[in-house]
Write a structure and sequence with these properties.
This protein has 285 residues and is mainly alpha-helical. The protein contains 11 helices and no strands. 48% of the residues are buried.
């Protein structure tokens, strides 16, 4: 069993495993689903004139858990660009050059590392840790690119120059985190449980995370640590960097505690929502 797990992990980053055709299919499915996910939230109001809520990110995150890592990362980059051009740009909060500068590299890097990590550490605490760590990293990359370069390619972003760059970078990161991380932690386990019958039968859904409550104390502890890291990042921004940008979006001090509570509640319950390894075996039979 251990050798098989290692073999699966080793193959998870390979471009031609299981086949080139299957990898192309994964790219297409990821890109299409992410495009649809971005379209569903494109017209929800956002702060600071640039960007959108990232609830739809749970779709590529689910595929990053159960499918090949590199194709999903490529599909996420394509999907974020397609979603921006088709849906978000018409809403007036981005354009194609800005998506290429910020959204595409941020999504590719985040899902490449996220997919690798969840296959290397196939536990629900590993999933929570990867979600908080690499979604934050991706959002930080996107935030930095938006704040530093958006005004060069997107005229409405010129007003950002009136605010401190560090405050805006942290603000965007926290804002995107609070829409993306709870969506992933809540929705991905639900999708994994719903697709249990497809594991082992599909060229796309190939990797069962095998989340189990067998070592529940240690896994719960790790999950809660990363949930508190999520909370700490929001609190750091609210108490240290929020005042100078609060006039742009006065509601952030309400939404951050709410989303932090969601993460604190659901992070320890991921394996319960997704179903344990024993439940997966029963579903297969």
């Amino acid at each position: 069993m251990e050798n098989n797990t290692r073999a699966n992990v080793k193959s998870s980053g390979g471009w031609f495993a299981p086949s080139a055709a299957a990898n192309v299919s994964i790219i297409v499915v990821t890109a299409v689903l992410y495009t649809i996910g971005k379209g569903l939230t494109a017209y929800i109001p956002t702060p600071w004139l640039v960007g959108q809520v990232l609830v739809g990110i749970f779709l590529p995150a689910f595929l990053a858990v159960v499918s090949e890592t590199v194709p999903v990362a490529v599909g996420a980059g394509i999907g974020t660009f397609a979603g921006d051009v088709l849906f978000v740009a018409p809403a007036g909060v981005t354009n194609a050059p800005l998506s290429l500068i910020a959204g595409v590299p941020a999504n590719f890097v985040a899902f490449l590392l996220f997919g690798w990590f969840v296959k290397r550490y196939r536990t629900w605490s590993g999933f929570v840790a990867a979600t908080v760590a690499f979604v934050t990293l991706g959002n930080l990359i996107a935030a930095f690119m938006v704040v530093r370069f958006a005004s060069l390619v997107f005229a409405p972003a010129a007003g950002l120059a009136a605010f401190p760059s560090v405050n805006l970078i942290l603000g965007y990161t926290v804002f995107w985190n609070m829409t993306a991380i709870p969506a992933i932690i809540i929705a991905v386990p639900v999708l994994i449980r719903a697709t249990r019958p497809l594991f082992g039968r599909s060229q796309i859904i190939r990797y069962d995370p095998q989340w189990s409550a067998g070592s529940s104390r240690s896994q719960t502890a790790v999950s809660l640590i990363f949930a508190f890291i999520f909370l700490a990042l929001g609190a750091t921004f609210l108490y240290g960097y929020y005042a100078s940008v609060s006039a742009i979006w006065s509601g952030l001090d309400f939404y951050v505690p709410v989303t932090a509570l969601l993460v604190l509640v659901f992070a320890p319950l991921v394996s319960v929502i997704a179903g344990t390894g024993q439940q997966a075996k029963q579903a297969a039979h």
